[in-house]
Design a protein that fits this description.
Blueprint (H helix, E strand, L loop, with lengths): L1 E5 L3 H14 L4 E5 L5 H8 L3 E5 L7 H11 L4 E5 L4 H10 L3 E4 L4 H17 L7 E4 L2 E4 L4 E4 L2 E2 L4 H12 L5 E2 H9 L6 H17 L7 E4 L3 E4 L2
Helix pairs in contact: 1-5, 2-3, 4-8, 6-7, 6-8
Length: 226
């Protein structure tokens, strides 16, 4: 396993490095303190996981995450001292897979890493086929969504949520089921799920698709019109 740490605090890097190598003896760790180097490393080295600090000295962490998501679906765990909900929501909806507020323990960090890697591994399997509705096509094997053949650029998290709804077309998927599928935990705030759905609808609309293919069932969940 290869982990890229984008963090400018040496003490935090050391905690992560030591914990990862104690848990996974063959773990390779690359650490950089400048975010501008990250996209090149992601493209060339193809790490299995990124630990990303938001408060970098050269670039904004959210802007960097957006750059990474344009070229890779690699799992990303955000590391930051920004504990307020708005920051967490923005990070998760930009494409992060999890969010850790500093300071954190090595035990918590390892548990979150394992959960994220487990979800990433699981998302590679599942049903095979293409779910269609009018001009929309959800290809479960290729993990892609198109509208009239035009690619809809969903993040890994958005794909997990949207494909799960599509697999359960015509059924109301409860909030907790979506949270478990997308984030691996039911303690995620409803506002995070709502923002994720909003982003998916926006991307569908931008490519000429019908955003109302996802219906909202207030107080319950969402459904995909099959």
């Amino acid at each position: 396993m290869h982990v890229l740490i984008v963090e400018d605090t040496p003490e935090v890097v050391e905690i992560i490095d030591v914990a990862l190598k104690l848990r996974w003896a063959d773990c390779e760790v690359t650490s950089i303190d400048r975010g501008g180097l990250a996209p090149g490393i992601v493209a060339s080295a193809r790490p299995d996981l990124i630990m990303l600090d938001l408060g970098l000295p050269d670039v904004d962490g959210i802007d960097l995450l957006e750059q990474i998501r344009r070229i890779s679906e690699v799992p990303v765990i955000i590391l930051t001292s920004r504990a307020h909900e708005a920051a967490r929501v923005r990070g998760l909806e930009t494409g992060a897979d999890d969010y850790m507020v500093k300071p954190f323990s090595a035990t918590e960090m390892l548990a979150r890493v394992q959960a994220v890697l487990r979800r990433a591994s699981r998302s590679g399997g599942g049903a095979v086929g293409i779910i269609t509705r009018e001009s929309l096509a959800v290809d479960l094997e290729q993990r892609s969504v198109t509208v009239d053949g035009q690619f809809v650029p969903l993040s890994r998290l958005e794909w997990e949520v949207f494909s799960y709804l599509a697999r359960n077309a015509g059924k109301v998927v409860k909030h907790n089921d979506l949270k478990q599928r997308g984030w691996g935990s039911t303690i995620v705030e409803d506002s995070v799920v709502k923002m994720c759905i909003r982003r998916i609808r926006g991307k569908l609309s931008k490519t000429g698709g019908d955003p109302e293919v996802i219906l909202t069932h207030r107080g319950t969940g969402y459904s995909f019109i099959g």
